[in-house]
């Protein structure tokens, strides 16, 4: 007991990271015109959205002003909208060395680009991309900008994705419908991501509408009613003090939406609009900086938020082609949808062997393998491509333990093999998990490798051990990320236009929105072409006019008028509507 206690104390004390990080990069304003309070806390993640109105609104003066404001606030992550000048944005980046900047490139300058700035002391960028490339019209050709981050301070860590958006402006019916459709697309995307385990998503930006309108007047409705997400800015809705757009009548149209994975972080969180104009003056702010105030969300992160989705998948403990000191290795698999940075993770057994991974950005990609071994020289280790060479950790030939822990000592995965009692006990062959979906603590789920390498040993480094187990995939021909429960196939690999879930309420509709039409499980295909809650001669006239090409019905009208559900409007539908009217008379 004393030995175990001493070991745990040594690991937790010596190898915990400091918070704040050592050599914290200073954030110094060029000017000191205002005294805006800092929003940063070392144990908190701060996320902020800020529309900078055609940045830079007043050239170099705006750049210097924004630099001071960011230097004062010191938040971790900022999502910008309306970046019009790459040169100005690059200048701002050069003035803030504690931040890394990324930006979209829609059409160069003057295209209202989206961008992020993130503090590299706390955040690591895993990947970034624009979304929904075929939906430019609905998103006003400002394609949402997704970035995946890992936040860490000391032994506290969090993986999440952010989606920066700038939806269509104005209150006309066309703009309303484009915002509505874009929100439906985002809502479907969120649902699909939740279904595959990506439950920590932040959608933030200029939504160009308020969230507290009634359904018929709310273009954000698909997101408002999505049970997998919530507008965290609803906490400050209805109080004009927190309005983010400050010209004219002013309103709260810049929002932050979060998904269910953040529910546990809502205790003592903070949502606020930062009233920069109170410090710099309303007229100066609106003329030289922006017509939008930044909106902030801050959460506290406890220790131990490390990914638990690493799986020990293959162990070469007793090679024959080379000696143990060259040929020992083990393989892990990332069963998550996120990159995982293994720097400062711990490899140990249940005795005295342990090693702290010391390689910045040792990244294991989602659904990928990574090899850790005693020797990374493949001319000496039997031709194995080892991704990371460790020391002070040996694999016993008969029985031993392979334990991976987070930097603060929390066990992520462990395998205790047992001299052939239940696990294989091969020589010159790896112990291989039959499938990474199986329980790797059960020795009966492991087998000796059957794949012979050029060296003569048997193993599958960096590859599937025994092929894969066929699983059921469901058709997603409408590309909404949701599978048809009535149309499935078995396959090892994911076929094109197939997904793993079977949650599509209507496989013939590219949305699960119940307000689109009857085909989508909503109001019903009832002949009410003009959607006035009555089926009468007016609907017949509009349907005939559509058939004769004298007018074009909107999507909802076509859907409700296709009474025989043959995906076309013709005389048969006219006859059926007339029959409905006569039956009700």
Summarize the structure in short:
With 585 residues, the chain is of the alpha+beta class. 19% of the residues lie in helices and 25% in strands.
What does this 3D model show about the protein?
The protein is of the alpha+beta class and 585 residues long. The protein has four domains: 257 residues, Deoxyribonuclease I, Chain A, CATH 3.60.10; 139 residues, Sandwich (Immunoglobulin-like), CATH 2.60.40; 38 residues, no CATH class; 72 residues, Type 1 dockerin domain. 19% of the residues lie in helices and 25% in strands. The strands form six sheets. The chain has a six-stranded mixed beta sheet, covered by helices on one side. A six-stranded mixed beta sheet has the order 5-6-7-8-10-9, with no helix packed on it. Helix 4 links the parallel strand 7 and strand 8. The longest helix is centred in the first third of the chain and has 23 residues. It is flat, with a radius of gyration of 29 Å. The N terminus is likely disordered.
């Amino acid at each position: 007991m004393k030995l175990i206690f001493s070991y745990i104390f040594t690991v937790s004390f010596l190898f915990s990271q400091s918070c704040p990080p050592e050599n914290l990069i200073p954030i110094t304003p060029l000017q000191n015109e205002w005294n805006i309070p800092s929003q940063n806390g070392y144990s908190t993640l701060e996320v902020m959205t800020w529309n900078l109105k055609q940045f830079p609104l007043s050239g170099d003066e705006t750049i210097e002003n924004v630099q001071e404001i960011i230097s004062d606030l010191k938040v971790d992550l900022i999502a910008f909208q309306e970046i019009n000048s790459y040169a100005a944005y690059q200048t701002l980046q050069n003035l803030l060395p504690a931040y890394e900047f990324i930006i979209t490139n829609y059409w160069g300058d003057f295209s209202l680009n989206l961008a992020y700035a993130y503090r590299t002391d706390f955040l690591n960028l895993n990947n970034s991309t624009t979304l929904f490339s075929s939906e430019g019209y609905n998103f006003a050709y400002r394609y949402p900008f997704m970035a995946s981050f890992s936040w860490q301070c000391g032994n506290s860590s969090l993986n999440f994705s952010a989606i920066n958006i700038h939806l269509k402006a104005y209150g006309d019916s066309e703009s309303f419908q484009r915002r509505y459709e874009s929100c439906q697309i985002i809502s479907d995307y969120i649902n699909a991501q939740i279904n595959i385990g990506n439950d920590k998503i932040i959608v933030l930006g200029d939504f160009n509408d308020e969230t507290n309108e009634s359904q018929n007047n709310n273009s954000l409705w698909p997101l408002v009613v999505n049970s997998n997400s919530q507008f965290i800015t609803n906490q400050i809705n209805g109080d004009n003090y927190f309005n983010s757009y400050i010209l004219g009548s002013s309103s709260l149209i810049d929002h932050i939406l979060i998904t269910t994975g953040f529910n546990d972080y809502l205790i003592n969180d903070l949502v606020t609009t930062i009233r920069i104009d109170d410090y710099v003056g309303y007229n100066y702010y609106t003329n030289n900086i922006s017509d939008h105030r930044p909106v902030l969300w801050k959460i506290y992160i406890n220790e131990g938020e490390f990914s638990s989705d690493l799986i020990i998948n293959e162990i070469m403990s007793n090679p024959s082609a080379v000696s143990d000191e060259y040929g020992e290795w083990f393989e892990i698999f990332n069963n998550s949808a996120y990159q995982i940075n293994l720097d400062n993770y711990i490899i140990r057994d249940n005795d005295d062997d342990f090693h702290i991974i010391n390689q910045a950005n040792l990244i294991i990609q989602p659904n990928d393998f990574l090899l850790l071994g005693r020797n990374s020289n493949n001319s000496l280790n039997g031709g194995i491509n080892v991704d990371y060479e460790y020391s002070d950790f040996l694999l016993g030939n008969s029985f031993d333990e392979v334990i991976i822990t987070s930097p603060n000592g929390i066990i992520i995965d462990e395998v205790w093999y047992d001299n052939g009692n239940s696990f294989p006990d091969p020589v010159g062959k790896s112990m291989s998990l039959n499938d990474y979906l199986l329980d790797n603590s059960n020795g009966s789920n492991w087998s000796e490798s059957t794949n012979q390498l050029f060296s003569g040993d048997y193993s599958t480094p960096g590859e599937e051990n025994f092929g894969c187990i066929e699983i059921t995939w469901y058709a997603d021909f409408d590309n909404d990320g949701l599978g048809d429960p009535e149309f499935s196939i078995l396959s090892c690999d994911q076929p094109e236009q197939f997904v793993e879930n079977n949650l599509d309420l209507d496989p013939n509709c590219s949305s699960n929105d119940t307000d689109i039409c009857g085909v989508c499980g909503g109001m019903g295909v009832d002949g009410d072409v003009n959607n006035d809650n009555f089926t009468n001669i007016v609907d017949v006239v509009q349907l005939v006019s559509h058939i004769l090409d004298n007018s074009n019905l909107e999507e909802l009208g076509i859907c409700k008028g296709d009474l025989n559900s043959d995906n076309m409007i013709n005389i048969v539908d006219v006859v059926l509507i007339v029959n409905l009217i006569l039956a009700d008379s």
